[in-house]
Amino acid sequence: MKTAIISFAHMHALAYAKYLVEHPEAELVAIWDADSTRGKEMADRFGSDFYSDLDELLKTDVEAVIICSENVNHKEHVFKAASYKKQILCEKPIATEIADAKEMIQVCDEHGVILQVAYPVRFVPAIQKVKDLVQAGKIGEVMAVNATNHGQMPGGWFVEKELSGGGSATDHIVHIMDVLRWMLKDEVKTVYAEFDTRFYDIEVEDAGLVTLELESGVIVSIDPSWSRPKTFPTWGDVTMEIVGTEGTIAVDAYKQHSLLYNDTDGKIQQMPWAEDMDAGLVNDFIDCVKNDRKPFISGTDGLRTLEVVKAAYEADELKETVLLKRN
Amino acid sequence: MVKVAVIGNSRKHLETWSNIKNVEVIAIVSGKSHEWIPEAHQKKAVSNAEELKTMDVDVVDLCVPVNERAEWIQQIAKEGVHIICETPLAETMEKASSIIKECEAKKVHLFVGNRRRYSPEYADARNQVNNGNVGKLGVTRLSSGAPHPGGEEDIITGLGMIEFDWLLWTFGDVERVMAKHVKKKRRDGWPVEYALITLRHRDQSFTQVELNWAKTTKETSFEISGDTGMLTFNSNESNPISLQLSGSEADVDLEEAVLFKSALERQLEHVAAFVEVQNKPVKRADDALKPIQLAEAARKSAETGQPVSIEGVLK
């Protein structure tokens, strides 16, 4: 199966490219990037052809594309790829505006193409295990979830609002939110949040806390802050403590690592040895396309999580709890 | 010699006082039942506080449930005896304020303690924050968990107060509170209770407090992040000893911190040292109002689903 990557603006593209190349049934034949230097470099690195014109790339017989452009450009690239009937895996967040996400879902429906949103955390073995335990009722009735998706400040276009749509809240709420909806089969009822810029001199938020209540009454806290110091041994974390009436499950998605005390570079580093979640995501996408089946992470999943992010910004603005409206 | 009277059934307080130099427990007011009192202290048992009048008591250590404190303090303050007790002072702001006024009128020094302030890890964390080791504060995460003790007291009082007192003391006043609180029953009928409380401080930094009465053991943790660093602690990962005995249940209690001197002993020692010099404990009553105010705001937020502003800074 011939595949392409549209933009390497998001660093996850590197991992996706690697797993496309490694996939026995997929080839990474084409790369487009607005930044031609980066695009050519990536094409060289992954043995692929670089296209400076996206239409030219999409006119080829490429079957599926992975879109890793800046958040605000997802819409344009999804529209264009769909119009050429390409199957799509789009980096999260699906879009920066709810109306855009809805249109993207609609356009992909109309063209009969897959729109899968990249939520790789669903492919972490520990997360799947926890989902099984929770759904089997091992901890009884779930009462509360205390979750974090911390990060170091990523810099680059992530902190330019006109390209990213927002800071740490945009970047980090959606991963936890997606996993919770999937694991608990529940939707958000109310949202409260406050954000601020506390750690860096940047124009977007880098700190904050989100408090949710789900339809079932489960209470949730999400800490999406870019609060990991520069000396932190890895980029960030995804953790959840799920409290049930009969027990508690705590999961640290990136716990499967060894610690390297690295004198050469003067730092301590987490060296992951886990089964890579990005491989799971890419393999699943290829399988979806090959077998013409619906992705189990849909455009609607992307929309639902974006709604929570938008409600969180609104709550922060109003300093009031917001009742979530689903589109 | 500092002469202490202990009111209430607290073997732990009694034993801790006995460890402190220049302190003598001269009376134990424990109502009808004296059985819990160790042999060596039996003859100090008295049935009611009236009997303290005739004794030369420097300070009363009040170890009774929160809802009984107001009445006791009123009675003791009348006799002009100084008082120490653990936070919280009372269930409500109103009651706590009237206790403080009463003590002021009677010129009685009231020390409302919080062991957390004397726990080495928490005391050290405060020093590091004050020394600027993490820089400008960003997001702080505090967690306290234990099995549900049963009883009527809610988790916000039961687990929250000592966190609130410490965080107010360390990070300053709070501007706004958002809280969620759930209480349910396990299959066997025993209660489980959990609260998530999000605070916005006056300096605009954030604190999240997790209170968990669904745990099987006592646990606490903190993570204090700022613009130049982050300080973390987790009681589960800080025990220098791991004991596994084959073929039998461990009967050695490693849950209490591995310290020569407990947090309670540090606190009582601090009180005693002050009494020895000044003949009365250091007054620490005003601090006692803020955690109660915070708890009231958290309860209101949990009830209404909306954030609650803390109006006006307390004196």
From TrEMBL, chain A:
Domain of life assignment: Bacteria
Domain GFO/IDH/MocA-like oxidoreductase: 127-249
Naturally occurring in which organism (per UniProt): Virgibacillus profundi
InterPro entries: Gfo/Idh/MocA-like_OxRdtase_N (IPR000683), Gfo/Idh/MocA_Oxidoreductases (IPR051450), GFO_IDH_MocA-like_dom (IPR055170), NAD(P)-bd_dom_sf (IPR036291)
Designated name of the protein: Dehydrogenase
Ranges of residues in domain Gfo/Idh/MocA-like oxidoreductase N-terminal: 13-119
Transmembrane domains' residue ranges: none
Source taxonomy: Bacteria, Bacillati, Bacillota, Bacilli, Bacillales
Example GO molecular function: nucleotide binding
Entry-linked Pfam families: GFO_IDH_MocA, GFO_IDH_MocA_C3
